[in-house]
Amino acid sequence: IKPDSFSVYIIPHTAKMTTIGMRKAGDRVNIETDVLGKYIGRHSDGDGKEKASRITPEFLEEKGFV
Q1: Against a cut of 0.70, is the pTM above it?
Q2: d(CA 13, CA 50)
Q3: Shortest CA distance to 64 belongs to which of 47, 39, 45?
Q4: Predicted confidence pLDDT, tens digits, the chain (66 residues)
Q5: Under 8 Å CB-to-CB from 41, ≥6 apart: which residues?
Q6: Cβ–Cβ contacts within 10 Å for residue 51, how many?
Q7: Residue 8 and residue 59: Cα distance in Å, rounded?
């Protein structure tokens, strides 16, 4: 995320099953993020880089993500 833009990753299933590929710059869209992405965002250092002490495979398993 930057002040005037952001990037997203679209999984192949979403690309295949939606009209996202028909969108162009400036189009309005509804973006729904997954729960895991939100959780990692809350435990990151602000630029998307994971804090090694917070997000581990054990942590994700304990929270039911793995």
Answers
A1: no
A2: 25
A3: 39
A4: 788 877 878 889 988 999 888 988 889 888 777 777 767 666 666 555 555 556 777 877 888 777
A5: 48
A6: 12
A7: 24
